Amino acid sequence: MTTESHSTAIELSEPAPAEVAAGTELMLKIALTCAAGCDLHHLPLTIKGPDDAAPAACQINDSGEVSLRIPPKVGTQSFTIACGPHEAAGIRHEPCALSLTVNAIPHGTSLAVWDIPSPILKGERFAIKVGAKSAANAELKGLEVAVFDNNEKVAARGRLRDAPWPGTTALYWDELELPAPADEGLRKWSVRFAAEGLALPHDGTAAEFSAMVSRPPEHRLTVKVIEQKSKEPIADVQVRLGPFRGTTDPAGIAEVMMPKGTYDLHVWKAAYESTDRPIEIKGDLSIEVEALFVPEEDPDNAWTM
Amino acid sequence: MSTQDRNDKNGASPALSRRSFLSKGAAGVGAAALTGAATTEAKAEIKWDHAVDVVVIGAGVSGLAAAITARDHGASVIAVEENYDIGGRGILSGGRLHLGGGNAMQQKHGIKDTPDQVYADWVRFDAGSARYSDRDLVRVFADENLATYDFLVANGVEFIDRMIGPEAASTIPRTFVTVEWHVPSELIAPGRNRNGSGLVRRLEASARKKGAQILLRHKMTKIIREQDNSRRVIGIAAMNGSNAVNIQARKGIIIATGGHTGNVNFRRMFDPRLTEEYQQACEPWVHQGADGELAAMELGASLWATASQTREAGAAITKTRHIGCRWGYSSLVYQPESPMFRLARATGLTVEDWQNVIFVNQNGKRFWNEVDGSYNFFAACMAWHGDKTKLNGGGPIWAIFDADAATREKWNTKPPNVDPDGYFFSADTIAELASKIKNPYQKQTMSGGVLQETVARYNSFVTAGADTDFKKPTPLYKIEKPPFYAAWSTPILHDTLTGLRTNTNGEVMDIRGDVIQGLYCAGEAQGGFAQHGLARCLAFGRVAARHAAGRTA
Hints:
The complex is a heterodimer.
Chain A: E1 4-6, E2 8-12, E3 19-21, E4 25-34, E5 45-48, E6 56-58, E7 65-69, E8 75-83, E9 86-88, E10 91-93, E11 96-105, E12 109-114, E13 120-121, E14 125-134, E15 144-148, E16 154-159, E17 171-179, E18 185-193, E19 205-214, E20 219-227, E21 238-241, E22 244-247, E23 253-258, E24 261-268, E25 272-273, E26 277-281, E27 285-293
Parallel strand pairs in A: 1-10, 3-11, 13-19, 20-27
Antiparallel strand pairs in A: 2-4, 4-7, 5-6, 5-8, 8-11, 9-10, 12-14, 14-17, 15-16, 15-18, 18-19, 20-23, 21-22, 21-24, 24-26, 25-27
Chain B: H1 3-7, E1 22-24, H2 40-43, E2 45-47, E3 50-57, H3 61-72, E4 77-81, E5 96-98, H4 104-108, H5 115-122, H6 128-131, H7 135-154, E6 175-177, H8 196-209, E7 213-216, E8 218-225, E9 233-240, E10 243-255, H9 264-267, H10 291-297, E11 303-304, E12 317-318, E13 322-323, H11 341-344, E14 349-350, E15 358-360, H12 375-381, E16 398-402, H13 403-409, E17 424-427, H14 430-436, H15 448-464, E18 484-488, E19 492-493, E20 499-500, E21 507-509, E22 515-521, H16 535-549
Parallel strand pairs in B: 3-4, 3-10, 4-7, 10-22
Antiparallel strand pairs in B: 1-2, 5-6, 8-9, 9-10, 11-20, 12-19, 13-14, 15-16, 16-18, 17-18, 21-22
């Protein structure tokens, strides 16, 4: 009985991504074809990676993909996917192979900075929370985060705690204490995370945060917010004077401690309108602010008999 | 075939052959004279599966009003509806009726009104919602207010005993609300006070009782004219699943298909910015596909009062109120018990205070003051954001917020409240959040660095107490507490405010200003009177059907 010979080919049916994170699994869409039109998707394949002593067996899955394990190191990685030869029922499918290189890159990291008090008092210490996240959800506990001030001086260092911040998947965090600058105004800091010493290669990252540095408050501003027409007090109104803030109580009153100075007073509550006004703080002060109720009908209000 | 159709055979046109359901479309005209693609169906023998006096396309508010009115005037009626149930957008509406003229409800509440006052209000030059309307049609509407009110009462529609307003261009209260339908299983958005259900279900019951036939799951595919270049229409072609159905209309065809808002190509005639990312309110229940407009325009029909569509007043484009879902129109939520929920996939997170989020475009940049809901805001949303492959439309708009905002708004950020399949994302950091946003309309991955910078800048505005970029009044809350969220907040489209040109009888007119004999239009597919809501649909549905029923077969 004579054996028929069919040539075969492996090629990518979709281009491979230009970059892949090191240490991950890459699903490659490939096409394994026979010149005579035989269906070859069931034939066993082999994959040889850059660190493999010998090729490993694999198969094309139902989605037409094969899985490539990218080694956990950064740089160009070479792979060879090969098939055959296979002989069955008088047909020999000749061998074929596909060689490709993949650029393995480090995993990204990112930061969150929260619970930043504002204003902070000049010269005093204040605390912030810093969290770091690996795009690969790597455990980051024990790694260092550092805060740099405007002059590139380290303001604080900390090590990420053992457990992620509640409600997150893998945000490892720490609370850091740092000194406020001696000068007033809006100041910026930079948080940096080097992400060194992890099994998977990671890139470091940085994030900025800002806070207002203020003199110590000297005077009490009492703001009472009432409705313009009814003259009734309005609760839960947000009162803002630059970085200084308060919220009205059920009596419509908010108390804000502030240093001397001139400020723009804003009040805000959804469905109310009011005009901003300048305020000069020279001593304790009580003022009344009117806000006009401009109700928007709730589209979900029940309309019943 | 219905009993009614068989009974109606006696009324068939004398032009029809002995086999009354087979006709020569080109009756009396030499077929050799006909040319052009549009003649294909007219030259061939048409097998009519049904034959009636009046065919209504669409069983929404205007279609149901038309079907009842045609029956009231002695015409046999079939209404075809592409959906599996009646109601169109009306069944999802709040049921607000903007009808005055001194009707019984107004009288009961001591409100003096006249048709002349209705007319005067709705041609006001100083009201954007009235300025661009065709005053001939407004006059008809005004004169039909009282009769339309009486029509509703006579057909069993119930109202809540309370007047609202004045609203829109009206200078006195003219709005009242229908009673919600009482059978929860027959609602499309149960549990959300969609009172328009009471309007359409009552009209449906009355239409059926009066002998109008409603063919559900019948999608009109073509309006058939007598012959090529003829200005007379004789029936429609429809598809019922995979079955073709031809319905002869001896007297008239009333287009009540409900507007064009969901048809991207069509709506861009009026505003090229309205590209595919802008969703249509009332989807997925009903798609405003411009079916009626297109079928009529293929016969030479004209559009009318197109300025109304871009007048920058009213609810043609609206701010989402429910974010993190694909369809977040202000007053419409599909709860899990809705038959539409499987398609809608989420209820959305209802925003009480826009101070709790910032909006970013697809590049991760802020672009406007978030508490604004004016047309300036919409223009900013639709501005070019630098995408060189997509010059029109502004791309997706995302609301970005943090865990503290979710607490303040009392949002549960899990399904069924949000749709994590493309319309809601969460992450441990802002940069990671940007990389997670994947959506059919998001053309490229948002840069984590850009979004992080945007949020840091906004946070500095909160710290300092002033938004120096976009003047958001008193920016209140930083976005800093993990986890972080991105929720779909792209403006959503609602009203269709232009459509086919009709005369005061509701007869569709062609691009030369001539009537297309037998073809009518009412509701959102009709151009000329761009009042928001149900009233114009009811009034012109009645006007068109009355005229059609009075035609000689």
